[in-house]
Amino acid sequence: MMENILWNTWQYLVDVFDCFLILYLFRKMMRTRLRQPKYYYLFLPVLAAVLFACNCWLSGMIGLGVMTCVYAAFSLLLFRGTVMMRLFWPAFCSVLFFSIDFIYSSALLMFFPTIDPYTYFSEQSAFFMVNTLATRLLIATAVVLVTRKAFRLTLSWRNWMLSVFIPAVSGVIMLLLEPNFMVPGVNDGLFLLVAVLLFLVNILCLWQTVSISRYTAMAARQEAELKLKGLEDTQYQNLLDTHKTLMGWRHDFFNHLSVIGQMIQTGRGDEALDYIEALRNKTNESSTMVNSGNLAVDSILNAKLPAARENGIRVSLRLEVPKMKTDPVDLCTLLGNLWDNAFEANMYLENHSERFIRLTVRPSDFFCSIHMENPVAPGREEQAESHESTKHLPGHGLGVGQIKKTVQKYDGVYSLRLAQPGRFVVDLLLPIDAAAPVEQVFVWESAKEALV
């Protein structure tokens, strides 16, 4: 009775595991919406049935099974990143799974000719369970390899190693126990219990890997939202500070006019001009407001400029921002990460005269070109070329990845390079309409401001 319960549990776990793998691959595949999904769902089962039939027909020989595996893997590689991959991915992955199953079974029967095929493939036998467990572990490994890009972006190396280590150890355990259970009718119940427990552990391991990956992705999104909220709070505080400054100027306005009028009345015109020039310079230095006509660009730069000025970083801006297709939040993400990386690189230069940030935004044919330059401290050229962050803290080191991800989202082009010793250059191209207008040109060099 107990053995039947264990056997039914085993079959249920295998079915659940297979469904989980297939549904997980389908979920990864269906990230892009299809215009007419009903035709897709009608077409896919027919294609899958044909491929399964061909695979079963050719699986009598190991060589043909290997060729089927190579064909499925090559097809997945060929269609990577295209709509065709999303159409054929489940079919080719299913063929890959069946091929792994047949190759393993054929190889085992070939290298162990004393095994009776009927006994091997019959239900409620240790032979059948070894085959099932081994093939499912291989299939799970194939799934992890197919989806490794998504896991690599969201899993730490410790969690990644754990997701690989547990299936590998389970396979070794089965190989060590196999000689003790390969005699039909001997210790089948004990072997069944071990197999069920190992299989359950591997299901939980895969489920934990997917859950951790999903949780990490959600945490990254929440962190980005908090960062954006912090940016909005900073911008709001900047507006309040500007308002207070303007109110202070209003209070002092009449005093300045009285002083200037007194100088003119007493014939000290040169002193009055010097006084006016000093007031103008003080105003420019304390109230530089970026006004390019693009709210996202203006907001992020107005929030970042005060810190650059306080740390002695010379800033050169030339902004000819066209009307863009890029979402303002994504544009803030791009410029914010670019500026933070440049600011961080400048802070490693002890000589303030060597600190600078040069930013140019302008239209270029069908693209908006974003060009940024900043210095690189001696001894940090290798780190700049590898695009690694110097901050080993939670939430840091994701700037370059966010830049690349955002540019790719809009089918843009990016280039991050060490153009010459001591200078790092970033060039981004984001698609725009050919006739996208430029509302105004904003040019600002260090403490001198001009609006063209």
Notes on the structure:
The chain is an alpha+beta fold and 452 residues long. It folds into 2 domains: 2-226, no CATH class; 289-451, Heat Shock Protein 90 (2-Layer Sandwich), CATH 3.30.565. It contains 14 helices and 7 strands. The chain has helices at 2-29, 37-58, 62-78, 83-111, 117-121, 126-146, 148-154, 157-181, 188-265, 269-286, 295-310, 328-346, 381-386, 399-409; strands at residues 314-319, 356-364, 367-375, 413-420, 423-431, 442-445, 448-451. α1 runs parallel beside α9, α4 packs antiparallel against α6 and α6 (126-146) packs antiparallel against α8. The N and C termini lie far apart (89 Å). Residues 30-35 and 388-398 have low confidence and may be disordered. Residues 235-290 form the SpoOB alpha-helical domain. Residues 328-431 form the Sensor histidine kinase NatK-like C-terminal domain. This is GHKL domain-containing protein. Keywords: Kinase, Phosphoprotein, Transferase. One of its GO terms (molecular function) is identical protein binding.
What key phrases describe this protein's structure?
67% helix, SPOB_a, Heat Shock Protein 90, 452 residues, alpha+beta, transferase, 2 domains, single chain, Sig_transdc_His_kin_SpoOB, 11% strand, seven-stranded mixed beta sheet, kinase, 14 helices, phosphoprotein
